[in-house]
Amino acid sequence: MAMCSEDRISSLPDHILCHILSFLPLKEAVRTSVISTKWRYLFASISTIEFDDSLLSGLTDRNVDSFKNFVDRLLKFPDQVSLDCFRLSDGISLNDEDHDFDVSGWICAALCRGVKEIDLFLDYFGCVLTVPAVLFTCHSLVTLKLNAECRKIDVPSDVCLGNLKTLQLRNTVVDGDSIHRLISNCHVLEDLAFIECHLMYASALNIKTPSLKRLVLDLDVVEYGDFNNVVVINAPNLEKADISIYLFGFSDRETSATHLIQGIIQGICTVRSLNLTINDLIFRTCRLPIFHNLIKFEYGVLGSNGRETWLVEFLHCAPNLNTLTLNFLVVVETQWKVLHMEVPSCLSLHLKEIKILNFKGDMRMFEMISYFLDNAMVLEKLMIGMKSLSETQQSIVFNQLLQLPKSSKKCQVVIF
């Protein structure tokens, strides 16, 4: 019996086919134009467009003009559908002198098509990254992601992003005035992220956003010259914070560093979930507020000297904590056996899950685990990551852990 193959994909409506094509790399989406007459121009109506250096591979002087014309047809022709996402990945320069690409024109064309998300990774030759001013007055934008490649972002005086809910700045030198001007004019902003950004010189980072729910603050802070950096966070509805602060050159400036960290900690005390990675030698000098709402806490442990005392002090300030994760990023040198402090109330009443990452199996970490098992009265699960240990070592350690006395009869020990 002869088999008859049916092209069911091509029979789908055009808008569904265009949605499918939006998940393909642009080159692959364009290649579908040879399938049949129906597919010939479908790629021109895709809702996600990404340009990256793969499009430039093999591009010669002869076909540069053809590539430019292709981009113009793809972006600038009238009656095009609105865009969900426009993305420029690494390898595309804003002021490209080799190919003379109209990158600013591409961005403006995407904005004219009512784009909802813009993600720009832009190489740039200069100290300040200047993008088209219309980017900061686009009412269709819901998500804006900018990678400034270790440069400041030139934010114009006229900013109005009335529908922007997500703002992500990556690898940016933070200019307090520009950033404040940008953030303060995003009136429905819910997600704000500074990723691998740099705070240096005398600068104030002012985050005043009543609508903000989630904050990522990943900063390299460099002590340079007349250091007077300040971070102020005023976000009363903040629910989740991911804070990573790396301090450089503060050996003789502990007071300045403490003042900086104090502003951050005071501004996030309303959160329900906190992921914190910071040098505890500086952090221990801060006055801790009470985290009444905090139920989930992850601590990336950078320091070693006296951190067990600081951690217990923090737990005293988180009376309703439910889940605790400890990520040991350096060698452990704790002294839990000699720790004479009142047991935090969260251990007695609320803490149900403890997760310990990068467990090495040394005696001091056993002391820490023993402390928690002794004092966590309602603990239900103790999870311990042992990926650095062999299977034989994991088995030995697991059996040793099972021998430790537990105050909570419901506690299960799990290794992963």
Automatic annotation (TrEMBL):
<dbReference type="InterPro" id="IPR006566">
    <property type="entry name" value="FBD"/>
</dbReference>
<dbReference type="InterPro" id="IPR036047">
    <property type="entry name" value="F-box-like_dom_sf"/>
</dbReference>
<dbReference type="Pfam" id="PF00646">
    <property type="entry name" value="F-box"/>
</dbReference>
<dbReference type="Pfam" id="PF24758">
    <property type="entry name" value="LRR_At5g56370"/>
</dbReference>
<dbReference type="InterPro" id="IPR050232">
    <property type="entry name" value="FBL13/AtMIF1-like"/>
</dbReference>
<protein>
    <recommendedName>
        <fullName>F-box domain-containing protein</fullName>
    </recommendedName>
</protein>
<dbReference type="Pfam" id="PF08387">
    <property type="entry name" value="FBD"/>
</dbReference>
<dbReference type="InterPro" id="IPR055411">
    <property type="entry name" value="LRR_FXL15/At3g58940/PEG3-like"/>
</dbReference>
<dbReference type="InterPro" id="IPR053781">
    <property type="entry name" value="F-box_AtFBL13-like"/>
</dbReference>
<dbReference type="InterPro" id="IPR032675">
    <property type="entry name" value="LRR_dom_sf"/>
</dbReference>
<dbReference type="InterPro" id="IPR001810">
    <property type="entry name" value="F-box_dom"/>
</dbReference>
<feature type="domain" description="F-box">
    <location>
        <begin position="6"/>
        <end position="59"/>
    </location>
</feature>
